[in-house]
């Protein structure tokens, strides 16, 4: 009982976020800017890594666990495992590469498939490299329309200037935290049933 309570509390305070998107859009640069306040220009493109940081979210101390994915997610089994472990997703494209925007639809499909049992999946669409306005290939309108269709927020960021970097991580954590709190209240009875079933097994 005590063990399950503390487990529950720690999962409430630890938000698992996954960076998803095509190669080169700035998933690592956004992660490293959020973690260490620096712009890293040449992060190893094939390296996936996870990071953890304590932050204060609306007065509560919580931890964010960020999984920065890389090329391995081409292997469906690895990708599905990554996605399954995620509680929230930053679906990143680069505003300078239209193909990376098109690819977000495919990534979203994959997330929905893996998370089929969830009716809401905390997710933000992130248009990165907003400092490269002169090279823009995706208009804000086009991206916003897509996000509206999906019922999610669209935010433009720059890992270089740090514009909106905190915003996307904090807004996502708020969504993840809100969802967990709602489920915890609603699903308490359901949770009890599940616990009993586990005991029998
Ligand atoms: P990933 O493959 O999605 O992890 O992309 P990276 O984070 O490795 O970034 C790919 C390239 O784009 C690197 O050269 C970064 O320095 C650059 N980059 C990433 N984000 C930005 C940004 O917001 N603005 C600019 N100008 N360059 C960026
Ligand atoms: Mg990377």
Automatic annotation (TrEMBL):
Enzyme class at the top of the EC tree: hydrolase
GO cellular component term of the entry, any: midbody
GO terms for biological process, alphabetical: signal transduction
Keyword presence, Hydrolase: yes
Subcellular location(s) of the protein: Cell membrane; Midbody
Superkingdom field: Eukaryota
Composition bias, Basic and acidic residues: 180-193
Membrane topology qualifier: Lipid-anchor
Enzyme Commission number(s) of this protein: 3.6.5.2
Keywords from the UniProt entry: Cell membrane, GTP-binding, Hydrolase, Lipoprotein, Membrane, Methylation, Nucleotide-binding, Prenylation
GO molecular function (one): GTP binding
Cross-referenced InterPro entries: P-loop_NTPase, Small_GTP-bd, Small_GTPase, Small_GTPase_Ras-type
A Pfam short name: Ras
Residue span of region Disordered: 180-201
Family according to the record: Belongs to the small GTPase superfamily. Ras family.
Protein name (database record): small monomeric GTPase
Organism per entry: Denticeps clupeoides
């Amino acid at each position: 009982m005590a063990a399950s309570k503390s487990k529950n509390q720690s999962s409430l305070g630890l938000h698992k976020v996954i960076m998803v998107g095509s190669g080169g859009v700035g998933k690592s640069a956004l992660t490293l800017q959020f973690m260490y306040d620096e712009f890293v220009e040449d992060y190893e493109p094939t390296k996936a890594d996870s990071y953890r940081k304590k932050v204060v979210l609306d007065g509560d101390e919580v931890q964010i666990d960020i999984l920065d994915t890389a090329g391995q997610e081409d292997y469906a089994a690895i990708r599905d495992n990554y996605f399954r472990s995620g509680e929230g997703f930053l679906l990143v494209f680069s505003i300078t590469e239209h193909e990376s925007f098109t690819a977000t639809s495919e990534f979203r499909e994959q997330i929905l498939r893996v998370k089929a049992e969830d009716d809401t999946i905390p997710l933000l669409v992130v248009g990165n490299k907003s400092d490269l306005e002169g090279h823009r290939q995706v208009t804000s309108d086009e991206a916003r329309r897509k996000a509206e269709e999906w019922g999610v927020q669209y935010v433009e960021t720059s890992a270089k200037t740090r514009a909106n970097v905190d915003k996307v991580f904090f807004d996502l954590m708020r969504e993840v935290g809100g969802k967990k709190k709602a489920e915890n209240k609603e699903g308490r009875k359901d949770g009890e049933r599940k616990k009993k079933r586990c005991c029998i097994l």
